[in-house]
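Repro case for the chain-ordering regression, as requested:
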Amino acid sequence: MSGARPGDVSGDGTSGGGAPATYPSTSEERRGVRMRIAHLTGWLRRLDWLSRCGLFCLLVLVLAALGSMVNLGGDPAEIAGGRLQPPGPDHWLGTDNLGRSLLPRLLEGIGVTLLLSSIAVLVTAVLSTALGIVAGYLGGMVNNLVMRVVELLYAFPSIVLAILVAAVVGPGRPAAMAAIVLVTIPLMTRLVRTASTSVAQRDYVTSAVVSGVRLPRILIRHVLPNVAGTIAVQGTYALSVGILVEGGLSFLGFGVQPPQASLGVLIQEGGVYMVAAPWLIITPGVVLILAILSINVVGDGLRDRLEPRETRSLR
Amino acid sequence: MRHTNRTGLSIACGVTAAVLITAGCSGGDTSTDDTSTPAESEPGYLAVADSSLPAGGELDVQTHIDASVATGLDPQLADLAAAWQLMSLVYETLVTVGPEFEIEPALAESWDMPDDTTYVFHLRDDVQFSNGRAMTADDVVGSLERQLELGSVWTGQLGPVESVTAVDEHTVEVALAEPYTPFLAALANVPASILPMREIEDGTLNPETEMLGTGPFVVADHRQDVSWRFERNDDYWKQDEPGVDAVNVQIVPQEAARIAALQDGSASLVTLGNVDSPALLQGASDVSVLTQANTDFYYLMLNSQWEESPFTDPRVRQAVNMAIDRAQIADVALAGLGHPTGVTPAGLPGACEPGDLPSGMADLDAARELLAEAGAENLTFELAIFSTDPAPAVAQVIQQSLEEIGVTVEIEQLEETSWNGKVYGEAPGRFDAALSWFAGYADPGMVTKWWNPDAAGFNLGFMESDAELTGLIDTVNSVPQGPERDAAITDLCAAVEDDAQMVPLVTRPSMVGYRADAVSVSLHADEGYGNPLRLLSEARMVRAE
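-- result from build under test --
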């Protein structure tokens, strides 16, 4: 952590990173957009091939989820055929124990799982960032208070915490989301705080303080952009944890409610029929593994890009 | 009556829940697994234990739920079928139920009916409690009087008992205020068990914490929600029973874990809830799965008492009743093992024909009209279910069939304790609709008594009594078997659907899996009291040690 250059991340006006935010608003909008796309593609090219594969898989999953919104493959709740039929021309992925086609249910499941986890992780990111930056920058009592509470949460095994939340809130999507947030907050807050602590000691922060810049502005303009990399990387990991927690909760019956499908629900339902109808667990299982793997790989790629100090020193 | 209701609250889950709780347990009509047919079975039996095998050995059993903590170990308070099955290993009743729902002798070796309100029971003279004391007429009189005073869920089932008197040491006379057709069938269930009244009265036995009965087994160890160990009662009155030295019961809520235990041999007999378990275990060597066709049935509660419920309007209830496709529930959710039923359980002698009822006609236009009249065209309601198989599947089929008349069902799936709290926890119950099952018993009149909430008590939070319905229930239960009763039953089935506060759906099959290389078991093809362990004392170990 020590001896790193400040302002490694673009977007910080004081470090002159040339971020989009610093363009004068009077310049041509189109040119700006084009430059942003060029910036993005260039950035993508700098990701390793593995991360690009992960990103591609994620894109496919997102498209599949969007497909479920227009009922691609049929109505997921409709009893469309015989029970437990193997994959065939009528039902590409077979049917479940109620004669529902697995394909639309799988698409719905991908959508529900991704959406639920993403929203939960966004909430986590916002909360963790706020808590982490404040604790890291201010230190002292605030730091102690925030970190002890977070550590308390950290002490619980994630699935136990999740079940506790579901028991209090009642099963369903809000409970699953709340559970994911509670489970992912501790790790993210700790890392953001650590990053903020080191940023808080940088010269440009000191200069800002000496120049009389007010606290909120310091936190938002100077600290936040420099911990953004950490947040992005941790966000991807939190997303995979979120998917796992959702899967676990639904597997235990505390997650989404029937007949809605999620990857966890499908695996739970399919698990019973592992021997008699293996397609019911294999397909959602593979998709779940793929989703988590992709997100982790993308997370690794992001870390290599955004937090190069750590990874390079490891290589 | 008020007394009944008060006690009823905690017991609420009573029979109802009793019922729901075994939702994963017993077995059913014909086995779909060819390998599971053990030799040639007798009519009315799915399997008959091989009595030529030597007695002895220990039987490992797994079931999905323990007896309720709330009511303790007192069989007269037991309101869950899960409790009945375990307590039936220790406690016995005057009479019992045979393979085709006929009433058979048990602790009473015979009985007479000098007139239609008097029953004279002749007790066996060779019965001892497991502490060695002989059972007498005083125990029988005391036990029945205790049950009548308790005001438990079962008190109402015993009917209009006026007096219970000991004629001599082995004869008991019960006088009823009026004829009551299901009386013997009501005596055949665990809550009517004969308790050691002398020990209870002198305080040496607390039936809530200890079990002391005349049955084939005694309790050696019990850890709530974990396990039971039952050891043989050496003084048991039936010759050559029990066939095993001990029964170890483990409480294993996860169906998959019970299936795995059966496959790897760590359990020799398990109760199963998944309707596909015969197919799932097909090919597992030496494993047999038998399906019992029960008189138990699923029903829908449509809350008429909570002001926020859409079902305060009877037309909305009737529309929902008409639109639910029972045949689809039976075929899809229960894999063809259940049958559509009216309020008298389909399959029970004397039950009404469900096809003639409004629910059997499936007239969706009439249902839509009723909804339109009630101004509830775009109805959305919440259906509370418990997560034990196959209730979620039943609920999802209901959801699909109601979509046909434009009704949206939002399923709320809870584990059983939370479900119980939601449905029976307060009055009025704060829910729109809920799904559960009732045990169907051995007489078509018995389960209909739950449609009179003033007598049943546990369902006062979501339904109110209807004078016409109550009158029909009383008629059905007081008229002797015959054409007059059949006509009353037909009227009652129609009245229940008209009232539609509790709507009967389909019968509930259940399964028992066992290892044919480890144990030889007896099992009735039909069961009415949620008790797959009814004939457990006949079981013999194939490899007795």
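Ordering looks correct now. Confidence is low (pLDDT under 50) at residues 1-40 of chain B.
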